[in-house]
Structures are given as structure tokens and as C-alpha cells.
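To whoever picks this up:

The parser on our side crashed when reading a file containing two proteins. I've narrowed it down to the boundary between the first structure block and the second sequence. Both blocks are reproduced below exactly, byte for byte. First block:
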Amino acid sequence: MPVGTTNRQIPGCGTHHIALQTLDWDASLRLYRDVLGMHVVAEFGTPERPILILDIGDGSHMEIFAPLPSAADQLVAANPLTHIALATTDTRQAIELVRQAGYAIKTEPKDVQLGSIAATIAFFTGPNGETIEFFQTN
């Protein structure tokens, strides 16, 4: 994945992935994988609710979540964008920067294994209520 070089605040900043809550898993796979040619680079989640990370083609990614189990949860999914993930070479430094700027931290930095991808991730809330993730591939 390309690493950004022009942002002086967040080392290596660029778009890592866009996360999408699907309403129709099979139709989503058909579009993103089969029609648009994105290939699966990681599979995780649970058998009941799989999650895939697809390479868009330039090294950036799309993360798709299988449908939520209940009708009430589907109302939440009416806005399918779940979060924006920014690539960084230092998640811990990036989250400290936004913490110092006064933004609410939703998830402190943690090391995770997402299928075949080892990463350090953290989440915070942006000024419009949007969820933003810092994603460091290890």
C-alpha cells in the first residue's frame, strides 16, 4: 500500500479503507469483487457475520460487513458508511495528536490480527460525529 509523504502531522497518512455496512451480502460481493474486480486480502468476523477487506486496486481498501442480524439493527445500517480509516505509520502518535486537539477517543490503540493482516488500530470521533480510524499495518 502506498504510504503518504506530504502530511507533516500524521506520519504516512493516506486512505487505508472505507468501511461499508451491507444490506445484501451476495449483491455486495457481486458488485465489489466480481464486477469491479476488487480482490479479498483478509477475511475475519464470525461465521454468522463475516467481514472482508478488499483491495480496491491501488493498495487502498474497502471493508465490507455482512448484514446485521435484526430488523432494528438494519435501521442503523440505513447509513451504510461505518467509518473512514486513515493509514499511518504510527497509530499511537496519531491518536495522541487528535486527543491533544480535544477529540473524543472511542478506541485506544490496540494490536489486532484481521485475517492475514496484522495492524495497530485506534478510533476517534470527528467534529460531525463521524468515526475515524487510524490504521497501521504491522
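<<boundary where parser fails>>
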Amino acid sequence: MKWKPLSVSALALVFLAASGLCAQASVQFTDASIQGSFGFAFNGTFVDGSATAAVGSLQADGRGHAAGDRTLVVGPGAFSRLCGGSATTACHLAQTFECTYAVNSDGTGTARCNVSSPFGTTQETLAFVIDRLGQEFQLIGTDPQAVVRGVAVKQTLP
């Protein structure tokens, strides 16, 4: 039996087919890519150096709306004074929030949230990127008074 050499183009086609690249479609994200219950945590600092951290849960409807609750810790420092802390003690706040969000086709997005606590309502803005096809998203705060980053992960029951 005589072997014939394959052309470079034939080898390239075989390689592409074997790697699955020919059949793979690009992913297009939408607001529906964030839907369901998520647990989240974030941490960072305020411009005065006060540390902040939070954990909570949110429910996203897949149509650009989310709501949830969180426990926020701030301080010690100037910002902790706004919620009952001091220059030497931190404060802890139970907060609820409602957000609107928009997802770009590349999986990045923004959210604008109204956050309520016993001390009133504030607004926060976030930027995020969806990971693991909607199973989690990385987030950062985009407000000028703090630098925060965190992650939200889809909650599932065992």
C-alpha cells in the first residue's frame, strides 16, 4: 500500500475538526445570562483608608432587575462614623438593595443599585463580567469614594 502525502490545507482541516473549533459558536450574553439566586462577597477600602466587606444574596430575574440583602462591615475610620462606628470601632449594617443591570454581548455589564439601611438610602454603581456561562460573575464598584471587588456565585441546592 502506498501512502500519499496530505496537503497542508487538508492537515489544517483535520486539526480544526479534531479540536472542535469548526463547530464552536461564539457566546452572546444578554440580561437573561444573570438569572436566579446568587451568593456574593466583596471587600475593599474607602478613600479614607477604612476597610469594608460584605456578604449577601441576590435574586436576578433575567430581565435586568435584581434585589437582595447583605451584611456590610465598615471601618474603623471616617466612613464608619456614618453608621455608628468610630475612628477605632467598625460598624455592621443589615442592608437591602434593588438594582437594575444591563449585560453586553461580550459578558461585561453595569448595575445601578439603591441600597437601604437604618441610616437611609444610598446609590451604588458596579461593573461586572460574567464567568462560567452565568454561574458566577466578578464585580467591582465604580463609585469614587471606595475601591471594592468581589464575586457572586449561583446558589444551588445539593
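After patching the parser it read the second block fine. The CA atoms of residues 126 and 142 lie 5 Å apart. The beta strands are 35-46, 51-61, 65-74, 91-103, 108-117, 120-131, 136-141, 146-154.
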